[in-house]
Amino acid sequence: MSSSQIKLFDIYNKLYKRFGSQNWWPADTDFEVVIGAILTQNTAWSNVEKAIANLKKKRLLSAKKLRALKLVRLAELIRPSGYYNIKTKRIRAFLDCLFSDYNGSLKKMFKSDLSRLRQALLGINGIGPETADSIILYAANRPVFVVDAYTRRIFSRHDIIKPEATYDQIQRFFMDNLPLDRGLFNEYHALIVELGKNICKTKPRCDICPIACFVK
DNA sequence: GACCAGGCACATC
DNA sequence: GATGTGCATGGT
Fold it and tell me: Which residue approaches C7 most closely, CA to C1'?
């Protein structure tokens, strides 16, 4: 094993030991994962939960129901998640793609091979690499590594990646140095988020960041 | 009241 | 290609 491989396994093991299984994604259906992935863009999950709860309460959390909903009504329901006007358009854009290209069926959409699925998702306005990969990993159950702000912050602080590395470069680093295991990728990303939520809020904390005791 | 959160698109240079 | 800005609510 290379030193990068050893480091990534070591960090994973330490995170798992510290935080345990995260059981991601917190959703009842694949469609809920998709909506949650869009709603959580640059947003605290606690706010997303309120928006999802609104949709669930009205029994609207399905592709068909949401598609039939007026945009102002959708915006009103997802309001607690913030950026609600933009997110309304993004959800709509996803649904447009889902219905025009896959007959409204997530199952059909997820059947295409991994790179075609990723390209299709990235082609939707409002779905960038992290949202696309979250959908692919946590809804389509395919092995892609999800990179987020915490991943960059934590791993660059520990000199494992460069802070200026692109999304694709960081993703490649993880996927080149870990087995392509969707269970592992699922848990690893969730653990990184859990660590980030707990301690890695602002840059100046780096020196006293408790992650040091996990990594070093 | 400031700062942040599981991003992304778009404008401008 | 790099850098800056708008989008918005709710918790600390």
Answer: A83
Closest-approach nucleotide to residue A150, Cα vs C1': B6
- Enumerate domains of chain A plus CATH numbers: 3-23+146-215 (1.10.1670.10), 30-138 (1.10.340.30)
SS3 per-residue string spanning A84-153 = HHHHHHHHHHHHHHHHHHHCCCHHHHHHCCHHHHHHHHHCCCCCCHHHHHHHHHHCCCCCCCCCCHHHHH
Q: Which nucleotides of B are covered by protein (CB under 7 A)?
A: 3-10
A82 CB closer than 7 A to any strand C atom: yes
Cα distance between residue A38 and residue A91, in whole Å = 7
Kindly give the parts of chain A with pLDDT less than 70: 200-216
pTM above 0.90, yes or no: yes
